[in-house]
Amino acid sequence: MKKSNIIIATDLSARSDRHVERGLAIAKDLDCQPVIAHVAAGALTGDGHERADVVRRLRRDFGPQVESWKIILGEGNVPEKLAEAAIVQDACLIVVGIARFNNLRDFVLGTAVDHLVRHAVVPVLVVKQGAHRPYARLAVATDFSDCSAEALKAALALFPHAKIDLISVFHVAYPGFLKADGVAKEMAAEAREEMEKFLTRYEIAADDRARITSHVIEGSFEGVMWAWMDEEKADLLVLGTQGRSGLAHAAIGSTASRLLETVPSDVLMVRKRK
């Protein structure tokens, strides 16, 4: 992908270190400029003292590498300012954590992520885990919509060395009926055919296709994705925020919200561009 900037939000707390470190690692891998964004709760004085304090605290935690970072300050509504910064800084990604909130549930079910994902023009990476190693395996959900295609393309571009499991989930109504097994086989075959058309329609390059393994799985979307992340130990869950099915209904709809709350992995949210 073209060289760009990565917005890395921080509230300067100790818990924010993990997503700052993840953002820095991604920026290095993509040869992007890290832009450290701190949004103050109160008004800035404009005399430079706040900036000096932010730089001092970052240097304390991250050492002399801070001198090569771009650091921006803002005040007011955190998600609004981050979304604005992504435009001004020509960013390709916003990296956030959960340090500004009491716990993950507060972060997910409040308005912050909802606002940020709905308004940001670039993908939003929600980091929960430490950046101990690069993302090696990604789980990308698809309902074969334009939005899920954008989610797949974002995953391929942002993480060019990762293997990708592209997952389509289908549900059989009334599974107890005698003909349900036959119906499930028919639906699975249709989904596999649709998967191939999906990859062809959106012109996924051959090199990228080689990184993708497709899966068609019966069950509820939430249950299948949670089990996949837990059992397969994928590093990152990638979700589109608008699409044809429950996986992508509204920016932080009930399904995406529960997955953000419950899956142990980091989550990349990709909004369909207008």
TrEMBL record:
UspA domain boundaries: 5-128, 135-271
| Record Gene3D superfamilies | HUPs (3.40.50.620)
Family recorded in the similarity comment = Belongs to the universal stress protein A family.
Taking the record's annotation, the residue ranges forming a coiled coil are: none
Which InterPro entries does UniProt cross-reference here? Rossmann-like_a/b/a_fold (IPR014729), Universal_stress_UspA (IPR006015), UspA (IPR006016)
Full protein name: Nucleotide-binding universal stress UspA family protein
| The species this protein was found in | Blastomonas natatoria
A Pfam match is: Usp
> Which PANTHER family does the UniProt record give?
STRESS RESPONSE PROTEIN NHAX, UNIVERSAL STRESS PROTEIN HP_0031
